[in-house]
Amino acid sequence: xxxxAAAVVAGLLTLTACGGGTGAQSGPKTLRxxxxxxxxxxxxxxxxxxxxxxxSHPDIGEIRFDSVPADTYTTxxxxxxxxxxxxxxxxxxxKSAPAFVASGALLPIKNKIENVGExxxxxxxxxxxxxxxxAFPFSTSPFGLFVNxxxxxxAGQQVPAGGWTWDQAxxxxxxxxxxxGKGGLVLPDFKYLNWDVLSTIWRGWxxxxxxxxxxxxxxxxPEMNDAMSFLHKAIFTQKAIPGPGTTIDFFAGNAAMGxxxxxxxxxxxxxxxxxxxxxxxxxxxxxxxxxxQAGVGVLKRSPNAEAAADFLGFFTNAANSAKLAQFFPxxxxxxLNAATLAKSNPLIKPDQLQSVVIDGIAKGVVKPTHPKQxxxxxxxxxxxxPLWQPGADVHSVLDGVCAKIRxxxxxx
Amino acid sequence: xxxTTEAAAPPVAARTTRPSFWTMRRRDNLTGYLFIxxxxxxxxxxxxxxxxxxxxxxxxxxxxxxxxxxxxxxxxYERLVSDEKLGEVLVATGWFAAGLVVLNLGLALxxxxxxxxxxxxxxFFRTLFFSPVLVSLVAWTLVWQLMLQPEGSLNSxxxxxxxxxxxxxxxxxxxxxxxxxxxxxxxxxxxxxLFLAALQGVPSSLYEAATxxxxxxxxxxxxxxxxxxxxxxxLTSIITxxxxxxxxxxxxxxxxxxxxxxxxxxxxxxxQQAFQFHHFGYGATISVLLFVIVALLTLLQWRMRRKWxxxxx
Lengths: 412, 313
Hints:
The structure holds two protein chains of two kinds. Chain A is α/β, with parallel strands linked by helices.
């Protein structure tokens, strides 16, 4: 009986040990890239690039794109890694970037990237460590203010060509909401959960979630207090922003304004209403821009890591970056001009591309990120919850946020 | 079959040569082991080994991203003891379990008693109350999530009666109540059916005798029904308590543990630590704690059964 038990245990150990190593076969290799898009047009483009690569690389048998829902993307990815079933390449959400880059899970790829010198430095910062690049930011999408011009006209509101200040934007949103019965200003990804989206507002006040070195809490700062008081008033007093639990879709024409990444402009292709794109309203601290990013990296533990890195080089070269740019704004400065962008973004006018996209990428700050992002995310979310009540005391809620996250920020 | 082999061996040879390895006892043992081996291998592979691995993981710091796995002894357990959030999580877990068990068992028993009457339409109502059990859990929860929105159908219904309903899933108290009620309606049918089966096993002669002796409805229920269905009450309460400690999908869909930490129950906290914050070792430690709690509660109920369960001689 003892021997039998030993055999079972040995068998199991072999099974688990083998889990990660099955990809190291000879013959044509299969590469797998996890992505969070399931959009047909996106996948068609990705498969097209992969087919072109396979034609010139007989050692690659198949390149597969695995769509994983964005909500649970990082969880699924880390579970696959833990289970010894890591993909060869993976898209990486901006908020997980510091954790992935710092962990050493990714292969350095700088030498694989074509003409690496032309990448916009503000956009590669998040993906670098010690001068090495660990993932290629294939999508760098600034946030802009989409405006439903029909609704505003209906409410008798003017849309300034050069953009609003925050006070003007909220006043216009409130007026439009009350006179049309539709929503005012919506933040589609916020849902009163994803608070990092609020950086598109508080940057206008010069506030930040934490200091650049990630050690000091920024929520209790006077700037943050002013920005959040403004936001709280806009939600609960002026009713310019829909309250918690209410879902209003800007892209279906149900709201006056929406703050979203310009990569979402595609959703407006069949829009039945007039719209325009403006830079984010300016705050007390002037103009600013916030960008959302996504990177693609090679998992170091993949048995085909070298081959995967070669493919990554091809995937992100200038020609393919230009193709990808129709959905995902590129960080290659050669592609960052209104003429090139206009070809792939027919819905957006050249001057809008200049003011929102090109200027946005040049001066933009990424949303708050931190090596302990997931934990901070959760902790800030719970601590901010009391703010989303009509009578909330903004100051004490924000102090509470700092009290909760300080131990995480200060831990080694 | 063993006797034939034994008899076939020449008695003299048996005395002089080494006795055969396959004695009758060993053969019987082998047969026995072969019979239980499917179940044994199953529970070894899918119960005991994973359980052992969880305990082993809890003694290690496992960073999935960096690929490091380092033995740290009881450090995770020390962290568990000093974890400030754990207190809030245990309180939420306790409220959830208590609310669910009381409401679920109470309602299930009430429904079972009502539907045990010989009246027209009981089959319809039995089917009605049981049908949520068959619905996919996530689909059920998603529909409720829509109904519980501030402008959802529940508040519209309340508005019809002039009541201004709260934002159910975003207020501390109402979020917990919502999660409990959604779960109770989903599963009460199962306990109801178990109670119904038990009720139908109660001999009607006892009720007749009691009625003749002048016992009222409440006394009959209290003195006959309850004691006779007590084994089922024990069974359903164990299943419900264990189930209430393992609720995950509803929380993940409805509240994500919020607002604040008001609906962060132990298993959701475990998920956050392991799969969202990548502390797999600490997550394993929390699951050891969960295992101990479930085991203790079950043991406690098992012990207490002697006091109130009426089925063993």
